[in-house]
Amino acid sequence: MQLRYAFRLYPDVAQQAALARAFGCARVVFNDAVRAREEARKAGRPSPTAGELPRAVITQAKQTTSRSWLGEVSAVVLQQSLRDAEAAYRNFFASLKGARKGPKLGPPRFKSRKDARQSVRFTANARWSITDSGRLNLPKIGAVKVKWSRTLPTTPTSVTVIKDAAGRYFASFVIDTDPAADHARMPATDRTIGIDLGLTNFAVLSDGTKIDSPRFLRRAEKKLKKAQRELSRKQKGSKNRAKARLKVARAHARVADARREFHHQLSTRLISENQGIAVEDLSVAGLARTRLAKSVHDAGWATFVGMLAYKAARYGRTLVKIGRFEPTSQTCSTCGVKDGPKPLKVREWTCTACGVVHDRDVNAAINIKKAAGLAVSACGAPVRPEPVLAQREETGSHGFKTGNRAA
């Protein structure tokens, strides 16, 4: 499977200017491609073909006075930006036809130069390399200093250079992992676990373990409010407003980094200790529209379950998602009698049939494990459907302090 390894970059002043030119040229090519297709649609003409579009927005554009500066950056950057536009249209049409899962997608929109996040991608054709001194050598940019948090397991197939809203630079490498080596890193075990995700406790395990919720956003809320107030008082377009915006972005980045690190550490621990894991398929989007929205977003359940999914697929574990309408909090895990719904304030209850006193969350975690039907064979392999395959998106690799701890 493919994973992304992200590392922090520290370009000098000249390299930052070169990256800014690359970001700008990639954005212009993307916008020109969208504009060409929109103009063809409004005029009733067929959309430009895959051969016509590169000639129009890259090759011929470089020969004009208004777009001659496109030649100052690597041609691969421009070609990859054009592929991104084509992929956006393919996803849009697939969403219209119902062939693409998830929420409906709109047509591609023009990219703004004021967007706080910028990125460019270099494939093997760009002839980028890692020098003997550990720097990332990029065409027409130079050898950029990299903060390596670990060694790359194999030769990357591409690298994406990202500038986030906090002004930080990252290099995101695409790596093809070796399944045999991954499975050897985590030998099979005979343990299985059920996980009940919540807000008071981030996770309660079926063995009775309770993992507290760090509440990263709530803890940083006072500083965030102060930074946001300072931003709102600055005059629009001023340099002080730009500095205040950067301060707010950095404060949010610290919260996101801490939350992501917590998710990675916990998911890796659970995957390494258990052969089978059961979780509830929560409707995070629905819960985010309630009065608990801020706490739900702060917990980041969807990101955590996504990490469990791709790590389970990578290391040969089994992840089972049970239906969200399963009455895990209403059923006695001892005798199996359904005791009816209970308000959230009820944290303990006594089964009317067998008289056992249950902790609400521990009982739910046990029922989640039972509903998943996890069983372990003599050789330690879980007896259950195929593992959930991981979907590693481009957005899943941004914002790390040092490196993407995908292991």
Helix percent band: 40-55%
Largest sheet: 7 strands, antiparallel
* DSSP strand content: 15-25%
Q: How many H/I helices?
A: 10
Structural class: alpha+beta
Number of strands: 14
Tell me, what's the shape?
A: elongated
Report mean pLDDT, rounded to a whole number.
88
Encode the helix/strand succession as letters. Answer: EHHHEEEEEEHEEEHHEHHHEEEH
What is the C-alpha radius of gyration, as a whole number of Å? 25 Å
How far apart, in Å, are the first and last alpha carbons?
13 Å
Low-confidence regions: 376-407
Describe this structure in words.
The protein is an alpha+beta fold and 407 residues long. Helix content is 40%, strand content 17%. It has helices at residues 13-43, 52-62, 75-97, 179-185, 216-232, 239-273, 284-287, 293-299, 301-315, 360-372; strands spanning 2-10, 118-123, 129-130, 136-138, 142-147, 158-163, 169-176, 192-197, 201-205, 210-212, 276-280, 318-322, 348-350, 357-359. The strands form 3 sheets. It has a 7-stranded antiparallel sheet with strand order 2-6-7-1-5-4-3. A 5-stranded mixed sheet has the order 10-9-8-11-12, sandwiched between helices. A two-stranded antiparallel ribbon has the order 13-14. The protein is elongated. The protein starts with a strand and ends in a 35-residue tail after the last helix.
Topology:
Blueprint: E1 2-10, H1 13-43, H2 52-62, H3 75-97, E2 118-123, E3 129-130, E4 136-138, E5 142-147, E6 158-163, E7 169-176, H4 179-185, E8 192-197, E9 201-205, E10 210-212, H5 216-232, H6 239-273, E11 276-280, H7 284-287, H8 293-299, H9 301-315, E12 318-322, E13 348-350, E14 357-359, H10 360-372
Helix pairs in contact: 1-3, 5-6, 6-9
